[in-house]
Amino acid sequence: MSRPFILGLTGSIGMGKSTTSSFFMNNGVPVWDADATVHQLYGKDGAAVAPIAALYPQAIVDGMVDRGALREVLKADPAALARIEAIVHPLTAASRTGFIADHPDAPILLLDIPLLFETGADQVCDAVLVVSAPPEIQRARVLSRGTMSPEQFEMIRAKQLPDAEKRARADYVIETLDLETTARDVRRLIDQIREKPHA
């Protein structure tokens, strides 16, 4: 029996991952979004709220995990990150497994995971797509959002696997220089994968 082809999508901050993910969705490919899942886990009645509240009650505001308060916790206690990850990673993995089980007949499933290689999630994928853009475009995109300072951007970039390493480990790479070309490359890749037999 054939099963869905599982394609992992990743890329550093500002590389066009969300846009690329939306092109897959527009082409009828179901998408599981790691960031959206964490957002849900942190939200009202989210599965991560109670276990985080038990460890760090100061990170909870109005029954939700407050990301700003959580950042303060992490700043004050470097060991907190491993404890938070020990709560969040199994919950996101369970959500991902459930998503795959819910789409047994889809030809392709896309797992949109920013830290795909860093968390070892590439192990559950049949192939990995990395989106990439030159460093100056990446920087300009992120800073034009107006949500972070150049220092914060550099700090996030430093925590992520270097773009060159991601590209080297990828099965497919899409350069996200303009929307039209990216959309065309996504359609081509979908066609290529659909034609490819997999166990």
UniProtKB/TrEMBL annotation:
ATP binds at residues 14-19. GO terms for molecular function: dephospho-CoA kinase activity. Keywords: ATP-binding, Coenzyme A biosynthesis, Cytoplasm, Kinase, Nucleotide-binding, Transferase. It is found in: Cytoplasm. Its main location: cytoplasm. It is an enzyme of class 2 (transferase). It catalyses: 3'-dephospho-CoA + ATP = ADP + CoA + H(+). Pathway: Cofactor biosynthesis; coenzyme A biosynthesis; CoA from (R)-pantothenate: step 5/5. Its EC number is 2.7.1.24. The keyword Membrane does not apply. Gene3D superfamilies: P-loop containing nucleotide triphosphate hydrolases. Belongs to the CoaE family. NCBIfam families: dephospho-CoA kinase (TIGR00152). Catalyzes the phosphorylation of the 3'-hydroxyl group of dephosphocoenzyme A to form coenzyme A. This is Dephospho-CoA kinase. It comes from Thioclava kandeliae. The lineage of its organism: Bacteria, Pseudomonadati, Pseudomonadota, Alphaproteobacteria, Rhodobacterales.
